Amino acid sequence: xxxxxxxxxxxxxxxxxxxxxxxxxxxxxxxxxxxxxxxxxxxxxxxxxxxxxxxxxxxxxxxxxxxxxxxxxxxxxxxxxxxxxxxxxxxxxxxxxxxxxxxxxxxxxxxxxxxxxxxxxxxxxxxxxxxxxxxxxxxxxxxxxxxxxxxxxxxxxxxxxxxxxxxxxxxxxxxxxxxxxxxxxxxxxxxxxxxxxxxxxxxxxxxxxxxxxxxxxxxxxxxxxxxxxxxxxxxxxxxxxxxxxxxxxxxxxxxxxxxxxxxxxxxxxxxxx
Length: 273
Fold this sequence. Notes:
- By secondary structure, the protein is α/β, with parallel strands linked by helices.
- Helices cover 40% and strands 15% of the residues.
- The chain has 10 helices and 10 strands.
- The strands form 3 sheets. A 6-stranded parallel β-sheet has the order 2-1-3-4-5-9. Strands 6-8 form a two-stranded parallel ribbon. It has a two-stranded antiparallel ribbon with strand order 7-10.
């Protein structure tokens, strides 16, 4: 098959490229297309393409210094996606696989999120991902383009960056962490499962427009995750108890409440699809 991948230099993209070596790949990286929200030469790149895997995005940023973060997210995640999808229709591409986010569903629900839960994003990143999904649904409904949308939670594995990588570095250094009292479970996703799902769905038929959640079977608390990271790296997990409510208050005072939410707020999901 001829497959175009956006964001091929990202964490997921690099592994997906390695998985799909038997196919004819077009790697739409920044060096080739520049700013995806401004790129207008898709017709040339999409000639003869069967499937597009759209991974490129403005990702969630813990310390976002943009004056209007939602506008910046929309430029890449919404407008860039719409331009690409419309170009796919014009070029006769059969299918587009879009990497969205569990942030579309929301955060802090007392039960598992499912495929059919109504969207309830709580931050600008989640809003932009939902708007991109809505745009893709409209384009798919008005054309022959099949769309598969995948909403993963935090993805981990070799070469991961971001929050997981930060936690991993701290655990490897043997630094004591005040998370022993954390009880909230959170879903995670092994990057290999995401890569395999993308690969297996290149040929699949079925629902023309499908949204599915994807996560490891068993969610983990932060202490459980720390112990697993420590075990994998053959170091000792150093956890101590500090009242979670006090830690939440302290982080809130210094403007870091989001850190607490990512460590001790429930976010679990299950997919029937």
